[in-house]
Design goal:
By secondary structure, this protein is α+β, with helices and mostly antiparallel strands. It contains 2 helices and 3 strands, in the order βααββ. It has one domain: Translation Initiation Factor IF3 (2-Layer Sandwich), CATH 3.30.110.70. It has a 3-stranded antiparallel β-sheet. The model has no long low-confidence stretch (mean pLDDT 86).
Amino acid sequence: MVTTDTIPGRNWEPLGLVKGEIVESKHFGKDFLAGFKNLVGGEITQYTEMIAEARHYATERMLQEAQRLGADAIVGIRFTSSSVMQGASEILVYGTAVRFI
């Protein structure tokens, strides 16, 4: 997996777009405690952990899709996120599955 659009020294053919996504939320109790942190400032670790976990699962889903296509690599990987509702975020990761030639 690379974020670049090329892999130096490798020739490849594109197999298609692959993606992984997840919408994840935190437990109400943790969300409630994070609200207090919002009042005083600083990192809201509950949300940092939530986003890291969501990014991991989205990446795994993208990898599984690439494996089903028989890919050797994924190029041009990009991440995006959006807030779906308070306390829930969507993480989307996508790239181009390629096979080395």
